[in-house]
Design a protein that fits this description.
about 55% helix; five-stranded parallel β-sheet; about 525 residues; six-stranded mixed β-sheet; 20 helices
Length: about 525
């Protein structure tokens, strides 16, 4: 809702402005009036307006004093000043009092309406921004465990963050680990050797184990946890050195005993050496996962303390294929430029590290083919239409690049064509709705609800596809129909106004004259000559 208060000591002017101007077209839902500054303040106390339009020269409290008083008590209210005197002092005082606009009387209705419309839009945008902020804060608080878990998963998967961005995330989520801190990792695999739980029901014991570990760890360390993609529990704790290592081992033994006694499960625990946050996180995590695979395997109920000295084995994978953002995700998001950049990153890595290696060329080809195949199937396509149903004989990096960029270009073109068709459909729906409801409510909000879109997006789509503002289209359509009805019908002017959605015939006459230079009656009479 958007409320307007009109203040002027000339009562007939207040009544005229209230009744003759189509305030609803500016987003105003309620209009109030007052004939003095004192009445205006009383009205504001009863029902505070969002926008105040006031004359400057009034007996008692003048307009400048009024908007100062309003601004002090209702700081978000927007004020617009009107005056019959072109005096610089008034304009200067109005600016100091933070009036949004300053008009000389008599002001044209369309100018005042435009100023009120601008103010209403700005207030609505401010409200939406505030609402979005409150909702985002509530969402962060509500989803804090998930957000913390996701951030840690991104770090262990090697996602790169700027120091500033990571610091912001750590502070926003209230995490106890900071940049440069000494940290260690605890990787926990939950095991059910007696098959007491159905695999689909392991989330509940997993939650119980997390609570047990958090309670034990919190006695000596600050921690942060997540569940990784393999179903392991991962805790990152601050601290390092021999004392911390011994304490972690003791904590691991305690958790094994408690989990066994209370849940009748076993856990295997991998304790990493210390490192620096966030630089060491991915490497320490990969060592923990590799240890589960190479030293524990199908056995259970182990605690393994990793040593500090470690020679990292040479990686033989094209790492950029598997580091975020992933190529399949970029395709799915329709982020075509980023997908091309990712492709170039992968090709550059091949040229730098594996130039001439057909082995790694094949790795890249099959990874890209898998991503393209998934995207095609998800969008209802067939692999045969894209020559993805059989492997190609890719012999050089040039052939691979030609094939991948060609497929990217084709998919982007098809998706853009589909998007354009969708927008054309929306515009057609808007045209139909306006034609059928011209005598009713054809506000932007009503149109947006009809096509199931946000009002701002409706306006942008319509403008992009037609080159015409939605409000201009609506006015043009009304004026064209007004001409038709004036020429070919016996309807009275007020009846035509009603048929075109103008509840106020006086405003219809004014709009018609501004559009054609003559009143509706004068136009009708000219057609009879």
């Amino acid at each position: 809702m958007m409320k307007l208060l009109i203040v002027d000591d000339e009562e007939h002017l207040v009544e005229s402005m209230t009744a003759s101007i189509a305030w609803e077209t500016a987003g105003i839902t309620s209009v109030f009036s007052a004939c003095s500054g004192k009445q205006a303040m009383e009205q504001m106390d009863k029902n505070a307006a969002d926008i105040v339009v006031t004359d400057v020269r009034m007996p008692g409290m003048n307009g400048i004093e009024l908007i100062r008083a309003v601004k002090q008590k209702w700081p978000r209210t927007v004020s617009i000043l009107l005056t019959g005197h072109a005096e610089f002092e008034y304009a200067q005082q109005g600016l100091k009092a933070k009036a949004a606009h300053y008009f000389l009387k008599p002001v044209k209705d369309e100018e005042l309406l435009a100023a009120v419309s601008d103010a209403a839009r700005a207030l609505q945008a401010e409200r939406e921004q505030m609402t979005a902020y409150v909702q985002s804060q509530a969402m962060v608080h509500r989803n804090l465990p998930i957000l913390r878990s996701n951030l840690l998963n991104h770090l262990i998967q090697g996602r790169m963050w700027t120091e500033r961005k990571l610091t912001e995330q750590l502070q926003l989520y209230g995490l106890p680990i900071g940049l440069g801190d000494t940290i260690s990792l605890i990787l926990i695999r939950i095991e059910d050797p007696q098959k007491r739980y159905d695999p689909s029901d392991m989330s509940l014991p997993g939650f119980a184990v997390t609570n047990i570990v958090e309670e034990l760890v919190s006695q000596h360390f600050k921690s942060w946890s997540c569940e990784d993609v393999y179903g392991h529990l991962l805790f990152i704790v601050n601290g390092g050195g021999d004392a911390s290592g011994r304490q972690l081992e003791q904590t691991a033994d305690e958790m094994r005993q408690i989990v066994s006694r209370l849940l009748h499960l076993t856990v295997s625990v991998i304790l990493s050496p210390s490192g620096t946050f966030p630089a060491s996180v991915e490497e320490l995590y990969q060592r923990c996962v590799a240890t589960v695979r190479s030293q524990i395997g199908y056995d259970n109920d182990f605690v393994v303390q990793l040593g500090g000295h470690h020679v990292k084995p040479a990686s033989l994978v094209v790492a950029s294929l598997y580091s975020p953002p992933l190529f399949p995700h970029l395709l799915e998001a329709g982020n075509w430029e980023a997908a091309r950049e990712k492709l170039q990153e992968v090709l550059l890595e091949w040229g730098t590290k594996y130039s001439g290696s057909h082995e790694h060329l094949s790795e890249i080809y099959y990874a890209l083919k898998s991503a393209f195949s998934y995207f095609v199937h998800k969008n209802g396509g067939l692999l045969t239409n894209y020559r993805l149903h059989t492997p190609l004989d890719i012999r050089s990096i040039g052939e691979l690049e030609y094939w991948a960029t060609g497929l990217l270009d084709r998919l982007q073109h098809e998706m853009n064509t589909e998007l354009s068709a969708s927008r054309h459909s929306v515009v057609a729906q808007i045209h139909q709705f306006v034609q059928e409801h011209l005598s009713e409510d054809v506000s932007l909000q009503a149109i947006a609800e009809y096509v199931y879109m946000h009002p701002t997006h409706v306006s942008k789509v319509f403008k992009r596809e037609t080159g015409e503002n939605l409000s201009d289209y609506l006015l043009r359509l009304r004026m064209e129909k007004a001409v038709f009805l004036l020429k070919d019908s016996k309807y009275r002017v007020y009846e035509i106004a009603n048929r075109l959605g103008y509840k106020n015939p006086t405003y219809f006459i004014k709009v018609f004259k501004e559009h054609f230079g003559v009143t509706p009656q004068e136009f009708r009479e000219s057609t009879l000559l």
